[in-house]
Amino acid sequence: MNVLATIASRRGLVSSLLAVAAACARPASAVETVQMPMQAHRGYFSEHCFVLSQGQRLAYEVHTPHAVDFNLHHHPAEGGTVFPDRLRLAARHANEIVAESGGVYCFQAANPEDRGQGYVLTVSYDVSGG
User: What is the pLDDT of residues 39-95, one digit of tens each?
Assistant: First the structure.
């Protein structure tokens, strides 16, 4: 390999390494979006669960075309259920919490009345820190 080819090859390697380092330095978007299908009958509920560590921050936003009984609840290791957020939600709700203890957390929505047809509730959330 001649000197010019060696320099070009090394420049390509250095450029590639710099590109990889730059990509690793940029935080990837951790926003997750879940679709929670809701059936039309009163009392139907849907839930999406995930694990948080103590001290992690959870930011979320919920969108629904119909009123629902919405909650974020937690099942601590020592038992029971804790509700960091609970409300009758009509359209959009956003909130942020810091996990007081680690374990399973769940978004849950329940139909407070019969509907003409099913629909979808959307939750976008981001977990950080910890």
Answer: 999 999 999 999 999 999 999 999 999 999 999 999 998 889 999 999 999 999 999
Q: Give me the amino acid identity at 107.
A: F
Q: What is the number of residues in the chain?
A: 130
CB count within 10 Å of CB 90 equals 12
Scan for tokens 């629902």, then name that residue. Answer: 68
Q: For residues 23 and 88, what is the distance between their CA atoms, to the nearest angstrom?
A: 42
Tokens matching residue 87: 């409300």
pTM for this structure? Answer: 0.76
List all residues 6 or more positions away from 44 whose beta carbon is below 8 Å from its beta carbon.
38, 110, 111
Structure tokens of 72?
């974020």
**How many angstroms separate the CA atoms of 86 and 107, rounded?**
10
Residue pair 102/53 in contact (Cβ under 8 Å)? The answer is yes
How far apart CA 80 and CA 39 sit, in angstroms, is 28
